Amino acid sequence: MGVEWLSVIALLSAAALAVRLAATKRSGKPAKREGSTRRRDEAPAARTDAAAPATPLGARLRPASDGYSLTLGQMEEVTEGLRQIPPFPQAVLRVTRELDSGESSAETVAETIASEPVLTASLLRIANSAAVGLRREVVTVAEAVAYLGFSTTRALFLRLQIGSLLPQSNRGGYDSQKLWIHSMAVAHAAEELARRVGATDPQLALTAGLLHDIGKVAINCRFPEKVRELWTSGAPADESFLDRERRIFGADHAAIGAILAVQWKLPAELAEMIRAHHLPQDRPPALSPEACRALLCVFVANQLVKYCHVYCENMEIDPIPDEVAAELGSTTQIESLLDQRMRQIIDRAAQLTGGAAETSAPVANAA
Ligand SMILES: [Fe+2]
Ligand SMILES: [Fe+2]
User: Fold this and answer.
1) What is the 107 CA–ligand 2 centroid distance (Å)?
2) Residues less than 5 Å from ion ligand 2, measured at CB
3) Which domain holds residue 256?
4) Which ligand is nearest to the CA of 278?
5) Intra-chain end-to-end CA distance of the chain, in Å
6) Which ligand is nearest to the CA of 301?
7) Which of 112, 295, 324, 328 has its C-alpha lying 20 to 30 A from 91's C-alpha?
8) Is residue 39 one of the residues assigned to a domain?
């Protein structure tokens, strides 16, 4: 993944979005992008017609939204709330740098991981639980890396490091454990889609897939009082979960995740991908074509994983717009995209982090 450390551009981009959305609301007309007439969050036309995609039991298509305005004041409030989160761990940067280096091996990656004893132990535990059936135990980190593969090692290391920065309060909220299972599955499904599509970086898709819902983990950690309001009764039946987040926090988890990514000084394109992971039709102009394709892979992977009920049954699925399918050279039909290999990938990723596909968990909405 090309890494360009930049925070200001992403912040400005988010501010520009806020202004655009605010203008949308003022005018009462949808914001238009060149070549697109669809309003932000507007449901694709297929949503209500006979060709609307089927949804699994317990799921629904996401209701359309009237759009929203994230003001600079609200952004500041959210940013203030996130300020207590510790900085992004340098260990992750060291490990990802080694994984990205063309000359890395399981041994050299293991050397960089070994400086983190707690994570080393977790990685060995996960490798051994995944390696049931092997004739002997996975004993060294190098063996674990070789067994799990570089992609899984990257995703697990990120998940373990970031998870330790964002402990879940015991006062309710999104279920962080299930959220990580979901994110792990999206990461691997997005990576697979990126390989199939070509002309994009599968590792970028993997990383963005893992981090796409990081805003929810941050909400859990930093807004434990407010988060329970997401599930209190009284919300309009046709209110989407994203709109509910906006109403309660002033921003949805995608925007909150992007602000955290900026705070962590993650690459600007990664922050943009997190912000836009529910908005494939509103892709940031600053994204390279490769990053755009990776973003679309994450968007589609998110729907596939939700369709497989990783991690819950009470969820909202975004239909895949025609233009997204056209750009990826795929179909809009989720069931067709869920071929046997894709289901295996989702299931393995879920199992690695302690979950399983086709399970239900009546706790929270997955978005
Ligand atoms: Fe999401
Ligand atoms: Fe998601």
Assistant:
1) 33
2) 213, 302
3) 8-25+58-85+166-352
4) 1
5) 25
6) 2
7) 295
8) no
User: Minimum-distance ligand to the CA of 179?
Assistant: 2
Instruction: Determine the pLDDT at residue 175.
Output: 87
- Distance from Cα 115 to the centre of ligand 2, integer Å: 31
pLDDT digits (tens, 9 = 90+) for 135-187: 788 999 999 999 999 999 999 999 988 988 888 777 678 888 889 999 999 99
Cα 278 to ligand 1 centre (Å): 6
User: Which residue type does 293 have?
Assistant: R
Q: Residue 212 Cα, ligand 2 centroid: separation in angstroms?
A: 6
Whether residue 48 is contained in a domain is answered as: no
Q: Which pLDDT belongs to residue 366?
A: 57
For residue 73, the CA-to-ligand 2 centroid distance in Å is 27
Residue 194 near residue 233 (C-beta atoms within 8 A): no
**Geometric angle at alpha carbon 333, from 342 and 257, rounded to 5°:** 70
> Considering its fold, how many domains does the chain have in total?
1
Picking from 27-36, 307-316, 343-352, which range would have the lowest pLDDT averaged per residue?
A: 27-36
Strand spans (E) along the chain: 59-61, 315-317
Kindly state whether residue 323 falls inside one of the protein's structural domains: yes
pTM: 0.82
Cα 302 to middle of ligand 1, angstroms: 8
Find the CATH number of the domain harbouring 12: 1.10.3210.10
Cα of 314 from ligand 2 centre, angstroms: 13
Residue at 105 is within a domain: no
Cα of 137 vs centre of ligand 2, distance in Å, is 33
Q: Which of 267, 305, 364, 354 is nearest to 187 (CA)?
A: 305
- Read off the pLDDT of residues 54-88 as tens digits, 9 standing for 90 and up: 676 667 888 777 666 667 777 777 888 899 899 99
Reply yes or no on whether the pLDDT at 16 is more than 90.
no
* Contacting residues for 315 by C-beta, under 8 A, at least 6 apart: 58, 59, 60, 306, 365, 366, 367
User: What is the whole-number distance in angstroms between the Cα of residue 128 and the centre of ligand 1?
Assistant: 30
Query: How many residues are present in the chain?
Result: 367
